[in-house]
C-alpha cells in the first residue's frame, strides 16, 4: 500500500535504541475519529503513522478475494502469517463488508499473534529514523505498546460515528442507509469489545477523548495540549 496509512520503511539510524522512540497510542471504536486524529498528530510531531486496522482489513480482504472463509481460524492464521502490507490496496479494504470480516478475523488469537511483531517493530523503530510513531487501533495501549508514553481512547456516540462513516461511504454506495451503517458499527464494536484476546478497551492510563460534540480542530488541540504536557514532563 502506498498511502498515509503507513509511511515507507527504512532502517533506523545507527545507535537508535529500540526502546527510545516516542509512541502515541490511539484506541477506540469504529469511526470515532482516531484515524483522522492520528494522521494530524503524526504530521504535527513528525512521527510515523501506522493504521493497524489496515492489517486486519488486509487479511480479511485477501481471504475474501480468494473465497476463503474468514471464520476458518487455521486459514486466517496462514493468511496473517503471509501478510504483506505493501500488497494491500487501501481503497479496496475500506468497504463495510471488509470491515465486518476484519473484526471476525481479528478475534482469532493466531491472527493477532502473527500481526503483533510487525506492529511492535514499527513502534520501536519508526520508519525513516523518525523520533516517534502514532499507532491507532483497538489494543495499542493495552497489548501492542503498553509502555507508550501517551495513550488516548477516542470515542463518540454511536449515532455520530455512524453519520461520519456514512458520509465516507456514500460516494461509492449511494444506496446505503445511515441506519445500516449504525447497525454495522454496533455489531463490530460489540464483537471487538467481547473477544477474549486483546478486547477493545481503554488502557487504565489512557486519556479519554469524546469527540461527539467537537470539531476535528478542537480534538487535535485537546490532544496536543495533553501530549505536550506529557512530553515536557517525562520524555
Ligand atoms: O476504521 P475503523 O475504526 O472502522 O476500523 P479499523 O480500525 O480499520 O479496524 C477494522 C477492524 O479491525 C476492527 O473492527 C477490529 O476488529 C480490528 N482491529 C483490531 O482488532 N485491532 C486493532 N489494533 C485494529 C483493528
Provide keyphrases for this structure:
11% strand; 9 helices; binds cytidine-5'-diphosphate; 5 strands; 235 residues; Rossmann fold; alpha/beta; 5-stranded parallel sheet
What is the CATH domain class?
Alpha Beta
Strand content: 5-15%
User: Spatial order of the strands in the main sheet?
Assistant: 2-3-1-4-5
User: What is the residue-averaged pLDDT?
Assistant: 91
Task: Detail the topology: elements first, then pairings.
Elements: E1 22-27, H1 34-45, E2 48-51, H2 53-65, H3 73-81, H4 96-105, H5 109-124, E3 132-137, H6 140-144, E4 150-155, H7 158-169, H8 178-194, E5 207-210, H9 216-234
Parallel strand pairs: 1-3, 1-4, 2-3, 4-5
Helix pairs in contact: 1-9, 2-3, 2-4, 3-5, 4-8, 7-8
The site of cytidine-5'-diphosphate (CDP) has 16 residues, from helix 2, helix 4 and helix 8.
Please outline what is shown here.
This protein is an alpha/beta fold and about 240 residues long. It has a single domain, classed as Rossmann fold.
What does this structure look like?
This protein is of the alpha/beta class and 235 residues long. The chain has a single domain, classed as P-loop containing nucleotide triphosphate hydrolases (Rossmann fold, 3-Layer(aba) Sandwich). The chain has helices spanning 34-45, 53-65, 73-81, 96-105, 109-124, 140-144, 158-169, 178-194, 216-234; strands at 22-27, 48-51, 132-137, 150-155, 207-210. Strands 2-3-1-4-5 form a five-stranded parallel β-sheet, sandwiched between helices. Residues 7-19 have low confidence and may be disordered. The site of cytidine-5'-diphosphate has 16 residues, from helix 2, helix 4 and helix 8. Residues 30-31, 35, 52-53, 56-57, 99, 102-103, 106, 137-139, 188, 192 line the site of cytidine-5'-diphosphate (CDP).
Amino acid at each position: 500500500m502506498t498511502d498515509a496509512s503507513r509511511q515507507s520503511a527504512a532502517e533506523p539510524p545507527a545507535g537508535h535504541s529500540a526502546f527510545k522512540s516516542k509512541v502515541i497510542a490511539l484506541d477506540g471504536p469504529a469511526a470515532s475519529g482516531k484515524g483522522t486524529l492520528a494522521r494530524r498528530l503524526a504530521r504535527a510531531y513528525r512521527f510515523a503513522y501506522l493504521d493497524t486496522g489496515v492489517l486486519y482489513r488486509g487479511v480479511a480482504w485477501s481471504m475474501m478475494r480468494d473465497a476463503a472463509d474468514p471464520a476458518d481460524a487455521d486459514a486466517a492464521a496462514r493468511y496473517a502469517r503471509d501478510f504483506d502490507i505493501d500488497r494491500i490496496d487501501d481503497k479496496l479494504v475500506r468497504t463495510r463488508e471488509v470491515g465486518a470480516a476484519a473484526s471476525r478475523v481479528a478475534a482469532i488469537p493466531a491472527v493477532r499473534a502473527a500481526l503483533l511483531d510487525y506492529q511492535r517493530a514499527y513502534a520501536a523503530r519508526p520508519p525513516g529514523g523518525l523520533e516517534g510513531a502514532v499507532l491507532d487501533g483497538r489494543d495499542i495501549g493495552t497489548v501492542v505498546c503498553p509502555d507508550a508514553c501517551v495513550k488516548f481512547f477516542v470515542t463518540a456516540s454511536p449515532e455520530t460515528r455512524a453519520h461520519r462513516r456514512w458520509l465516507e461511504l456514500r460516494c461509492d454506495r449511494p444506496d446505503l442507509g445511515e441506519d445500516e451503517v449504525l447497525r454495522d458499527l454496533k455489531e463490530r464494536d460489540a464483537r471487538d469489545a467481547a473477544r477474549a484476546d486483546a478486547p477493545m478497551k481503554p488502557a487504565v492510563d489512557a486519556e479519554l477523548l469524546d469527540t461527539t460534540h467537537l470539531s476535528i480542530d478542537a480534538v487535535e488541540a485537546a490532544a496536543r495540549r495533553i501530549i505536550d504536557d506529557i512530553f515536557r514532563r517525562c520524555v
